Fold this protein.
Amino acid sequence: MKRRIYWSLCLISLAALLLSTAASLSLYYHFYQEQSQTDLMRQCVALSAGAQSSGDAVSFLKAYEPNDEEIRITLLNEKGEVLFDSQADSSHMENHQNRPEFQQALESGKGQDSRISNTVGISTYYYAVRCGSDMVLRLGRDNRNIFGVFLQIFPLDLLSCGILFIVSVFIARMVTKRIVTPLTKAADNLEALPETGSYDELEPFLIKIRHQNRTIRRQLREIQEDRDTITMILENMQEGMVILNGEKKILSVNRSAMNFLQPAEHNPVGKPMVSLSRNMELLDAVEKAHEGTAGSGILEHGSQKLRYFVNPVLAGQAVGGVIVLVMDVTEQYKAQKEREDFSANVSHELKTPLTTISGFAEMMKSGMVREEEEVKDFSSMIYIEARRLLSLIDDIMRLSKIEEGRETFSEPVALLQLAKEAASLLETEAEKRNIEIVVQGDNVTVPGNATMLYEMIRNLCENAVKYNVDGGKVWITVKTQPDAHISLCVKDTGIGIPRKDHERIFERFYRVDKSRSKQTGGTGLGLSIVKHIVERHHGKIRLQSLEGKGTTMEILLPEKVGM
């Protein structure tokens, strides 16, 4: 734009100079021509008067010496014959009767004409007047003389024009810079627009730009806020999201998708889907989505199970991109498996005592048991199995209640006191086998549910007594830990747990020794209940056990809620 404005101003200046120069030269030429003709008229009249007063016009003219050598003097009689000519031999000149200026002078006393002379062959201006009654005096001047004077001043005029053009170019450059500089600054930085009043001519334009500048800044700010919001949402989504464009290149991938798929490349943006995952099932689904077909499925990624959804994004009739959504469904699958196992185990555990009760009852009904002692034994077996069934149902209900989270956790609970109460309840059973129970530690409290925590301690202590050796010992210790946790430790000198069973003892209905559990009346849900109570209280379980040496169960509970 700067160049266009500059050259436009230069061309305008040059055109103006040329036009003004041509006009001035034309005016000067015409002025000089008129002035020369007026001088010729005056000389002709004066010379005619002198010739008439001399008495001999020819002799007077011969003796006359004009100041301007370019002036031609001619004396004619009334018949048009040349009596005298200052630049030619009059005896050889043709008759001038048909000359316009001669005829005008005879008729009106004066006449003029401009033409090429037949005598000298050059452009000449003629002026004629009557000289007496029978003669005409004519003066002529060469027009080339006038043009010559014009040519003499033309170089000077041209030089002046050149100087003025150079000055115009300089002024055009300054004006162009003054106009364009603020606009250039505005183009580089919209914040640098000149203030109101810098250029009155540009003010409407600048006002419009300022308004658009404010609008653009506001829109950019809104776009940035929306972008930040979308980015924050995507990055904090638990689900993984991948967005691909129509060219099958990754436009965006959030943190969850990176964690789920664990690509080899640090930044797969701008690359094909294969750089993010090499799973052929997923890649095939993405390829079909680019063809317009949505898909879903399950991926096994290590120990994880990932459900994916692949959907095309339509732009009119064509596919403009693809969105891939990945969710971790490992826990759902695990929970489903646990429910299935639980249902199967519950059915089995309930069926076993019911079968026993039904069998004994049927034998008694049919009369197969007649002896009093046999009836007593069968009744005892039915009672034991019924108690076992009731205990099992009670544990199932208790576990279901814990899982549903219907219990409150607002009360401070004194763990040492609960431990003493649980130990007191087991004293009779422990004395039968000469097992010593020792309760020790700090009087501390934890936030939680007293009933559930008592259930936890009782289950741990029951196991410590049930699976102990005769004459063994059980220690129940409550201590404050440096990491703001409370430790509840139940240690015994019992039979211990084989190492291969350490990972599974907290599963529902899992028993290390099924025959011994049946003897002791265990349901297989005790440690599972303990685990769920600990998790509900945001705690941790630590297990140390050696087969034949004993077992240590340590529960770590936070001192404050939410730790």
About this structure: Residues 274 and 283 are 7 Å apart (CA to CA). The longest helix spans residues 2-54. The chain is about 50% helix and 20% strand.
